[in-house]
């Protein structure tokens, strides 16, 4: 495990923000650290980076205790918390050169990083004129300059447009698949994390509710087929008679568990042939709130 915490706890005054957290982040993974705003994600990251002192519990990174091996561990971690620390009056290249000098990293790494995060064409443009997505990629390039084994990112897609989100996602996947990094990334966006993560931890009110592979998560958050019709009760009864399980009914739609695209086509054809008007039929994933409910009810 690249990150292994046991019983990690932290208080701000009388408020417990992190509650006996035991994280296990495998080497070579993209670990999605999920939770709503205020769940304790950023506090946990600051504990992992030794920016806050733990109240209780232990943190082992690269198999070593963080407290007693602080310098050697942190030298192998790149991080981006909230907004990247960028000098807006300098170009992207100048920002990287400045950081390289501070870290005593060879200047040759600058062009490597610009190419890696696909900012080579915008290298001489003032960073203040970068889009949000470009700024995030520059921030990741700054974090990667010393060639760390572990990259820790706090909400890297926050505030980005769809193109920016895709850019960051593809970059993180490349870092793991092609450059053998381990990435720990926090987010409150379940759907986005599911597109790139190999492992997931879900935190709420400082407590770890779930931890496992993305396949384990998918087993809990089984997708549904949402069918919009005008007579939901009649359609629900009809589908039940034909062997389908109806999981939810409202005034204008109902849901059944998703199994395949073919199943969706079968339902649509069946309803049309029997004169039920289908306004829409599509696959939906449980949102984070419903997933929390499922997990806490099973616990």
Radius of gyration: 23 Å
- According to CATH, the homologous superfamily of the largest domain is P-loop containing nucleotide triphosphate hydrolases
Low-confidence stretches: none
- If helices are DSSP runs of H or I spanning 4 or more residues, what is the number of helices? 11
Strand fraction: 25-35%
DSSP strand count: 15
Named at the architecture level, the CATH assignment of the largest domain is: 3-Layer(aba) Sandwich
Order of helices and strands: EEEEHEEHEHHHEHEHEEHEHEEHEH
Number of structural domains:
2
What does the overall shape look like? globular
Strands ordered across the widest β-sheet: 7-8-9-4-10-11
Structural class: alpha/beta
Largest sheet: 6 strands, mixed
End-to-end Cα distance: 25 Å
Which whole number gives the mean pLDDT? 84
Topology-level CATH name of the largest domain: Rossmann fold
Question: What is the C-level CATH assignment of the largest domain?
Answer: Alpha Beta
How much helical structure, as a percent, in the residues? 25-40%
Describe this protein's structure.
This protein has helices at 41-48, 70-74, 92-103, 108-116, 132-144, 162-179, 190-196, 214-220, 232-241, 261-273, 288-298; strands spanning 3-12, 15-21, 24-25, 30-34, 56-61, 64-65, 77-81, 150-154, 182-187, 199-204, 207-213, 224-229, 248-249, 253-257, 278-284. It has a six-stranded mixed β-sheet, with helices on both faces. Strands 1, 2, 3, 5 and 6 form a five-stranded antiparallel β-sheet that branches. The chain has a four-stranded antiparallel β-sheet with strand order 13-14-12-15, covered by helices on one side. The chain contains eleven helices and 15 strands. The protein folds into two domains: 3-219, Rossmann fold, CATH 3.40.50; 222-298, Alpha-Beta Plaits. The mean pLDDT is 84. With 299 residues, it is α/β, with parallel strands linked by helices.
